[in-house]
Design brief:
The protein has 411 residues and is mainly alpha-helical. It has two domains: 51 residues, no CATH class; 300 residues, Orthogonal Bundle (ABC transporter involved in vitamin B12 uptake, BtuC), CATH 1.10.3470. It is built from 17 helices and four strands. The strands form two sheets. The chain has a two-stranded antiparallel sheet. The protein has a two-stranded antiparallel sheet with strand order 3-4. Helix 5 packs across helix 14, helix 5 runs antiparallel to helix 15 and helix 6 packs across helix 7.
Length: 411
């Protein structure tokens, strides 16, 4: 009953605030005042319904936290605890991904393949930023700058030195790693807002340099005629080139998942998570703060530079407007929405944030409004993200260990 009264009061208050805007209308032609009371009624009903649903959701969330019933394991936890289930899901996803181009593209219609290539590129970006932000807890608002470094590395090397795609692919990743180390050195002791401001400035400086250095980077006009990936010297048509790019970025996604998962469960991965939870305590326990932070920036930037080469090769053209702050914010949103440190969550969030706007173009005018509302609701009702991070569990049989007949077991 208290919630109904509160919601009713909120509805009346919104009706009072919006009265001059939604009710009174002056017709300048006939010099008459029109009173639209039905609009005021709809405002009151809408405000009442939203306020009631909001209070109901808040109470359900509080009741769920206070409940003594054990929580059900999350999807990620079930997959981690059940190797057979995780293997089946992985094989099913791999099979769908492999046959995807042949299911959706016919003739010269390869639109869906190109859309998926762009989405998978952002999956790699999200997984790379997940190392820096999700595992190490180092907020980075200029991550797209490393993406630009990789893209321009391939464009310049292919244009000036006639180097091929496969030669430039690791070079782009190494250049991104180099710039990650260069950025990491001056900000080793920065945290929180100060760290975010420095990384934001780094991204802005990178874009300004690309726009104004015409002789090297082409300025605002960018660089065109970037070679596509070659396949043993074969001539490929438009559809075949898109399918080939799709399989390249798909293999890169698989490699990124494998490497980041191994890093997460390694010694350096545990050091990253310790630094994220409490920097002072982790340093006191012997974690090398400088090396740990630099490795997080370097490895995160490596994947951005690597996939930047694929981006430049796939689009044949790059310019500074391809690497804006909104792209950095989008990649960061993928990490936050998916779940800090969660590989599966970041993949799902990246695919959702890139594919849904593309296939819901009829609602393009309301895209940012819906995006902002989803972010607010996620931060209130599920701050841990779509799929919360899970850590590897280790079981120790104390009885057998005491008798000297057992050893450590892990899963």
């Amino acid at each position: 009953m208290a919630h109904l009264k509160r919601s009713f009061g909120i509805g009346l208050w919104f009706m009072f605030l919006t009265l001059p805007l939604v009710v009174v209308r002056v017709n300048t032609l006939s010099q008459e005042v029109q009173w639209r009371w039905s609009n005021l009624l709809w405002v009151g009903v809408g405000a009442f319904a939203i306020a009631w649903f909001w209070q109901f959701s808040i109470n359900r969330r509080a009741a769920g936290r206070a409940s003594t019933v054990a929580d059900k394991p999350s999807l990620a936890q079930r997959l981690a605890d059940d190797p057979v289930l995780s293997r089946r899901v992985l094989l099913g996803a791999a099979a769908v991904a492999i046959v995807f181009p042949w299911l959706v593209s016919t003739g010269q219609n390869f639109y869906h393949v190109n859309v998926m290539v762009s989405a998978l590129i952002f999956v790699v970006l999200g997984l790379g930023l997940n190392i820096t932000v999700g595992l190490a807890g180092l907020l980075d608002l200029g991550y797209i700058a490393f993406f630009a470094v990789g893209a321009y590395t391939y464009a310049l090397l292919s244009k000036n030195f006639d180097l091929g795609f496969w030669t430039c692919l690791p070079l782009g990743g190494l250049m991104g790693m180099l710039f990650g180390v260069i950025l990491g050195f001056p900000i080793l002791r920065l945290r929180g807002d100060y760290l975010a401001i420095v990384t934001l400035g780094f991204g802005a400086i990178t874009k300004i340099v690309l726009e104004n250095w015409d002789t090297l980077f082409g300025g605002a006009a960018g660089l065109a005629n970037i070679p596509r990936p070659e396949l043993f010297g074969l001539l490929l048509d438009g559809r075949q080139k898109s399918v080939y790019s799709y399989y390249i970025v798909l293999a890169l996604v698989a490699l990124t998942i494998f490497v980041t998962n191994r890093l997460k469960n390694s010694r350096i991965g545990h050091a990253w998570m310790a630094l994220r939870e409490d920097e002072i305590a982790s340093v006191a326990m012997g974690v090398d703060m400088a090396r740990t932070k630099l490795s997080a920036y370097a490895l995160g930037a490596f994947w951005a530079g690597l996939v930047g080469v694929v981006f430049a090769a796939h689009n044949n053209f790059i310019n500074p407007d391809s690497f804006t702050f909104m792209d950095s914010a989008m990649v960061l949103a993928m990490v936050v929405l998916g779940g800090m440190g969660s590989i599966l969550g970041v993949i799902i969030a990246a695919l959702a944030l890139k594919l849904l706007p593309e296939y819901l173009r009829a609602f393009a005018e309301y895209r940012m409004l819906v995006f902002g509302a989803v972010m607010v609701l996620m931060m209130i009702f599920r701050p841990q993200g779509l799929i919360s991070d899970t850590r590897r569990k280790y079981d120790y049989d104390g009885a057998d260990g005491a008798n000297g007949e057992g050893d450590h077991g892990g899963k």
